Here is the input.
Amino acid sequence: LYQIVYNYQDSALSGYLGERARTIGETDFELVDGLYQLGEYDLTVDVAPGDGFLVNWKYHPDAFSADAVAGMAEHFATLVDSILDSDGQSPIGMLNLLGDEERRLVTEAWNRTEADFPAQRTCWDLFAEQVEANPDASAVTCGQLTLTYRELADRSSALALALRRRGVAPGDVVGVCYERSLDLVVALLAVMRLGAVYLPLDDRLPAERLSYMVEDSGAQLIICHEAVMDRLAAVGTPKARLYATDRQDDQADQTRAAAAETSADAPDSPASTPPAAYIIYTSGSTGRPKGVVVPHA
Here is the structure.
């Protein structure tokens, strides 16, 4: 089934269309409104040779707007001109469909996408701007759970304060081992708020690889859910402490810390831009995995 018809007629169209024909380039055509008849196709293009080419565009107004059909008509005229200019010898990919002005619009005007980027600011700084501008807007959703920007900032700040009290300082590497969840986003923001560097870990990886990543990165603390603590403890990373952020007593500790927080206690972003946001390890397919340090900007 089809809804578009191209019909080449070897006869002149009516004098009415001929009188109204207008010229674009070297190709004559006319866009005629109101010729749609019930039962015809969404778009019918009738072409008849004469002194030039008379092209009758009939369209259903529910399927196409007048501007859309006018644009197709101009593209058609440009394409025919391009074929005639090349004597039919050019490959299809070399034929012109856009006029000079439209080509400049597409290739130049619409491609002016350069923009200044705040290279001296951290991911937390940019997030904090959104918290200020849209505190009650949805920030992150996982399944049926959603946190607003304010809620996400509050939870991240509470965890950041708890991490700082456990000795995390700017530049430290913190292992982050969570499944996809709201807690994962909270943890990443908390680490970055302190100016620390997060190391994403997947507890499903072989123990040897996890151990290597933790030791090679110099991570001193790993934050996770309580459900994976035994698995991570068995990895064999004696230098890295484990902190389950969803354990009841740990959550209570975060709540107390947040409630007791004063402006002096608040974990401010570091004065200078931290050199890194996170460390990601390569697959190690050509040797040992290598840690790639990724900056904020």
